[in-house]
């Protein structure tokens, strides 16, 4: 059957945003007088923790970070500053949509397929990205945006997908999720959603058991509503 709603993850799925997040974190650390620097291999590890505040706390707990206790007292302020830096970078055009994203979204809108977002990133980050990438407010494209701290348990818990499904008032079998990471896949699958995975630069080393399909991006091969319907017909699980 054809999907009646598509629920997108944001970071790594709509755009390769993680490198911009990393730069924003590092700039924030300097701003707060912390001698911390997250290089790419370290950030790849830290991405196992979803949510920016949670990631900072995990770094302090697991990496003997200098000034850790002081930083922990300022996590909320640091995260707010990081969000400001990130949204500024994105507004300046630092993030571009990944291949095929705009085409699939355009096809979905033309055919009346509903669109939603399920992400652990903060709402201002999502809105900045969507405004910059699509040139219009996010609400004119996505009917439901589940973001940030709206649920207590972040991915890989299924809560954010359940929240979005409730808001859409849609059954899982009528929807599909698109994700780039194992945490995201596990979250969507735990909510009962068939999930297409387009691995990103920071998740290409991961494995994706239970995915409906794994493709390099939405243009390789060109993924349309028909393609998704064929994958679902071929997968007895759905
Ligand atoms: Mg992601």
TrEMBL record:
InterPro entries cross-referenced by the UniProt entry: CbbY-like, HAD-like_sf, HAD-SF_hydro_IA, HAD_sf, PGP-like_dom2
SUPFAM superfamilies associated with the record? HAD-like
An example of a GO molecular function for this protein is:
hydrolase activity
NCBIfam families cross-referenced by the UniProt entry: HAD-SF-IA-v3 (TIGR01509)
Q: What is this protein called?
A: Protein CbbY
Q: Which organism is it from?
A: Ancylobacter defluvii
């Amino acid at each position: 059957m054809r999907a009646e709603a598509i629920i997108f993850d944001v970071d790594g799925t709509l755009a390769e945003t993680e490198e911009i997040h990393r730069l924003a974190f590092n700039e924030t650390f300097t701003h707060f007088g912390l001698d911390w620097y997250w290089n790419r291999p370290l950030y790849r590890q830290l991405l196992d923790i979803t949510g920016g505040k949670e990631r900072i706390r995990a770094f302090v707990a697991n990496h003997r970070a200098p000034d850790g206790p002081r930083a922990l007292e300022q996590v909320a302020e640091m995260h707010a500053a990081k969000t400001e830096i990130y949204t500024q970078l994105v507004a300046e055009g630092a993030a571009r949509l990944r291949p095929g994203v705009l085409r699939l979204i355009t096809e979905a809108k033309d055919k009346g397929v509903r669109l939603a977002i399920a992400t652990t990133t903060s709402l201002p980050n999502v809105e900045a990205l969507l405004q910059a990438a699509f040139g219009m407010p996010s609400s004119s494209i996505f009917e439901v945006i589940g973001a940030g701290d709206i649920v207590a348990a972040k991915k890989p818990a299924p809560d954010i997908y359940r929240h979005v499904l409730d808001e859409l008032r849609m059954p899982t079998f009528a929807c599909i999720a698109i994700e780039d990471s194992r945490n995201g896949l596990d979250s969507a699958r735990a909510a009962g959603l068939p999930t297409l995975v387009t691995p990103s630069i920071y998740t290409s080393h991961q494995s994706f058991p239970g995915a409906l399909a794994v493709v390099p991006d939405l243009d390789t091969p060109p993924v349309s509503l028909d393609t998704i319907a064929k994958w679902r017909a071929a997968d007895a699980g759905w």
